Please model this.
Amino acid sequence: MEFWLILLLANFGVGICVGLTGVAGFLLPIVYTGPLLMGTTQALALSFGAFVIAGILGAYNYSRGGNLDLSFGIKLSLGSLAGAILGVKLNLVIPEEQVKMILYLVVLISGISILLRKEQTGREAKGQAGGYQIREHLGATLVLGFVTGVLCAMSGAGGPVLVMPLLVLLGISVRTAVGVSLFNMIFISLPAFFGYMSQCFQQELISVLGAALLFHGLGVWLGSLNASRINQGLLKRGIAVFSILIALWKLFL
Model:
């Protein structure tokens, strides 16, 4: 009973946070391998299954709200798809702790950069018209997608915790960055889900997977429906601080 309670509450709560901000999905593997005492491969399979649902539902609601640059998202996701396939393979040969160290160093730097960037421009509400705009550079977009896809598929991060702050840093407005990162998460999570699922006994995970997807999807749906009610500047600062705190926690505690 305790197992199911933790499973459902964790997926629902994390789902709400993902829908609101795009980040927090990386907490699921921690719950699975911590309180639920599951193996790493099972944890990653279940987590990436939830991330597929989160990406689909979240991106749909952000698109309805006009906060998804689909053209840019597709270009980014082409790189991520290839990166995720490689990331699953590399997970078998590279120590997990090394991968997570790299991931959270990038998250830490991204969060700090977002906070510093806040005072440099007042045009974020207009799509951050000044400065470097990654959407104007196809090569850089594909490389960013590939690198983040590799890192996220290896480490169990759904994608937005790394992609979202980087997109804001590279000239994408906050809500659009969340929408794009949720869309991008689909293409990171699909190959990762099938890759990790193929490495564990699937029959024993079916009921757990079904319940997790249902409650995670419900949380994402509710969160993304209410995302537009949050002030964009506040959202940006909150995500930056959240990214920094989580990175410090994972790096030093």
The chain is about 75% helix and 0% strand. Confidence is low (pLDDT under 50) at residues 119-129.
